[in-house]
C-alpha cells in the first residue's frame, strides 16, 4: 500500500517541485551518493511498473475466463449502470421481436 501512495504522490508532483526535491537531495546526500540513490529509485520504479503490468495481465486472464463472465457483467453494470440497462433493454426488445416473428410465421407441414 505504501508503494501505491508513493506512485500517487509522484504523479501529482510538478516540475518545480521535483526540481526542489532534487536540489534538497543534492544538498543533503551530496553529489557522491545522489546518482546511486537515483539509480536505485529508478530500479524500484521499473520493478513496480513490471509488477503492475503483470498484475494487470493476470487480472485480464482471470476476467476472460468464461466462469467469470457474470462477475465481469456485474462490474460493468456497477461502472456504467445506464449503458448496461439500455443494453439489456435492447436485448430484451430484440428477443421479444424475434419470438413474435417466430410465432407469427405459419407452420408448413
Can you summarize this structure?
The protein is mainly α and 109 residues long. Helices cover 87% and strands 0% of the residues. Helix 3 (69-79) crosses helix 4.
Number of strands: 0
Alpha-carbon distance between the termini? 70 Å
Count the DSSP helices: 4
Q: From the alpha-carbon coordinates, what is the Rg to the nearest angstrom?
A: 27 Å
How confident overall, as mean pLDDT?
83
Biggest sheet details: none
Can you write the helix and strand succession as a string? Answer: HHHH
Low-confidence segments, given as residue ranges, are none
| Count of discrete domains | 2
Q: Which range does the strand content fall in?
A: under 5%
> Which class best fits the helix and strand makeup?
mainly alpha
Oligomer: single chain
Morphology:
elongated
Helix content: over 70%
Key traits:
109 residues, mainly alpha, 2 domains
Describe the structure.
0% of the residues are buried. The protein has 4 helices and no strands. With 109 residues, it is mainly alpha-helical. Helix 3 packs across helix 4 (81-104). It is elongated and about 85 Å long. The chain has helices at residues 2-12, 15-63, 69-79, 81-104. The protein folds into 2 domains: 1-64; 67-103.
Amino acid at each position: 500500500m505504501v508503494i501505491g501512495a508513493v506512485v500517487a504522490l509522484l504523479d501529482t508532483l510538478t516540475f518545480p517541485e521535483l526540481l526542489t526535491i532534487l536540489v534538497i537531495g543534492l544538498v543533503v546526500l551530496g553529489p557522491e551518493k545522489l546518482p546511486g540513490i537515483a539509480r536505485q529509485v529508478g530500479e524500484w520504479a521499473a520493478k513496480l511498473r513490471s509488477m503492475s503490468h503483470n498484475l494487470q495481465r493476470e487480472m485480464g486472464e482471470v476476467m476472460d475466463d468464461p466462469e467469470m463472465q457474470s462477475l465481469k457483467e456485474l462490474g460493468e453494470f456497477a461502472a456504467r449502470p445506464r449503458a448496461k440497462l439500455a443494453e439489456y433493454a435492447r436485448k430484451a426488445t430484440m428477443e421479444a421481436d424475434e419470438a413474435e416473428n417466430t410465432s407469427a410465421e405459419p407452420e408448413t407441414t
